[in-house]
Design a protein that fits this description.
Blueprint lengths: L1 E9 L4 H15 L5 E8 L6 E8 L2 H9 L1 H11 L3 E10 L2
Antiparallel strand pairs: 1-3, 1-4, 2-3
Length: about 90
Amino acid sequence: MITVIARWVANEGRGKELETLLSQVAEASRTEKGCLNYQPLRHSENENAFAIYEQYVDEAAFEDHRNSSHFQETVVTKILPLLNERYVDVYRNI
């Protein structure tokens, strides 16, 4: 199993827009065959800070997610330009 913890910080004042787009990505991602969990989170004190907790059955499923049309069209094209910071950590079960 692959677990991904992504931390994103939107440019000042863009948090609501990021939340809307992230909700769309979450909905589409949850329908992917190899996606076990896709949970976006918004920081309780910083309205521009988000985390995404993702789990996939294996590396192939994670790659399928990254290559999906909704990831490419929404994350790459629309979300990345909104971000001030982006961290993605990928973990494997031990």
